[in-house]
Specification:
Elements (H helix, E strand, L loop, with lengths): L1 H8 L2 H12 L6 E2 H10 L6 H13 L5 E5 L2 E5 L7 H13 L5 H12 L7 H4 L16 H13 L2 E10 L5 E3 L5 E11 L2 E8 L4 E6 L3 E10 L3 H5 L3 H7 L7 E10 L3 H8 L4 E4 L6 E10 L1 H9 L4 E5 L1 H16 L4
Helix pairs in contact: 2-4, 5-6
């Protein structure tokens, strides 16, 4: 029996750590009677000296427990948290907004994030998050796919996979029976979707693939190629130039833009947007941007209405006009 008591007392630091994580934070404390009562509920009976020794041990392991004197007695708390309440709310909202996670996986991750807070955080963290109202991925293997991709990158290996696409029955089906074989180099989060950035030896170029549309990923024994091309690759610059991750020929496009749209260009392109005044027409400015010209880019320009006019190059103007004419042709009566 004495041996059992001795063994159970070895668990005191672990139980105290759990108690301080759940029941204390920067503004909430426990007192010695609370600690002793908590341990008794675990069938552990200890004296104050044992508790002081356990607190000292936890502090030695960098789990900070602070004692504050109060009317001749002390109250104790674990003031520093890995995440504060606002940070936990941000993590929960980010998970809820992530389209690449299924509703089930989102709920699972949110539950885990909530456990990082104290019991006093529970009320503010238990908010109504309308997961069912958001567009959520129907592919529950995204996180597993990421594991494969990161492992292939770390081991400098190529990988193969099947690529999926939506059909009219709202089902993901195989796009091609032939396996894709690529050299993975990076993962990018863009427009709420995860993308694999990889070198494709067939096109001899970098390509991107929606990770939630990948399945049957296999890491091969073949070493990656295309490293030289990726070394000069700037993923932030690439994401900024690419609209909706739809590729196209890279062009430097010059536009005339109304002044009240300056913020739209700065928000999209940041410091890379070349902006200068138009002295002939003071209510407009000239913008020079480098983009991957695609229908999605033209749709973005069109959405800005009469406030934007493409000035050069002529090939881009011609392409834009042809697209508009094709669209208008569908509405001719």
């Amino acid at each position: 029996m004495n041996k059992e008591k001795s063994e159970s007392k070895k668990l005191i630091p672990l139980y105290l750590q759990k108690l301080f994580l759940e029941k204390t934070d920067k503004t909430h404390y426990v007192r010695m009677p609370d600690i002793l009562s908590y341990l008794e509920s675990k069938n552990i009976f200890a004296d104050r000296r044992t508790i002081y020794a356990a607190i000292s041990l936890l502090n030695y392991t960098d789990f900070e427990i602070v004692g504050v004197q109060e009317k001749g007695n002390y109250k104790y708390h674990h003031p520093s948290r890995l995440f504060n309440t606002n940070e936990l709310k941000f993590l929960i909202d980010s998970i809820a907004a992530s389209k690449f996670l299924t509703e089930k996986k989102s709920k699972d991750l949110i539950s885990k994030v909530k456990s990082l807070g104290s019991s006093f955080d529970a009320k503010s963290l238990n908010r109504n998050i309308l997961l069912s109202k958001r567009i959520k991925s129907m592919n529950d293997k995204v996180l597993r796919n990421l594991d494969y991709i990161y492992s292939a990158i770390a081991d400098n290996k190529q990988l193969t996979f099947q690529y999926l696409q939506w059909n009219t029955k709202r089902k993901l089906v195989i796009k091609s029976e032939k396996l894709y074989a690529v050299s993975p180099y990076a993962v990018s989060l863009s427009d709420d979707n995860y993308y694999l950035i990889a070198f494709d030896s067939k096109s001899n170029d970098l390509r991107h693939y929606r990770i939630d549309k990948m399945q049957s990923i296999t890491i091969t024994n073949t070493e990656r190629i295309g490293k030289e091309l990726f070394q000069s690759f700037d993923i932030v610059d690439y994401s900024r130039k690419t609209f909706g991750m739809f590729g196209g020929k890279e062009e430097t496009v010059r536009l005339e833009v109304k002044n009240d749209l300056a913020g739209v260009f700065i928000d999209r392109f940041g410091e890379s947007a070349g902006i200068r005044p138009n002295f002939k027409t003071p209510d407009t400015f000239f913008a020079r941007i480098t983009v991957h010209v695609s229908p999605q880019f033209f749709a973005w320009v069109f959405g800005l209405g009469e406030g934007v006019k493409i000035l050069s190059p002529e090939t881009v103007i011609d392409e834009y006009q042809k697209m508009i004419e094709k669209v208008l042709g569908r509405y001719v009566r």
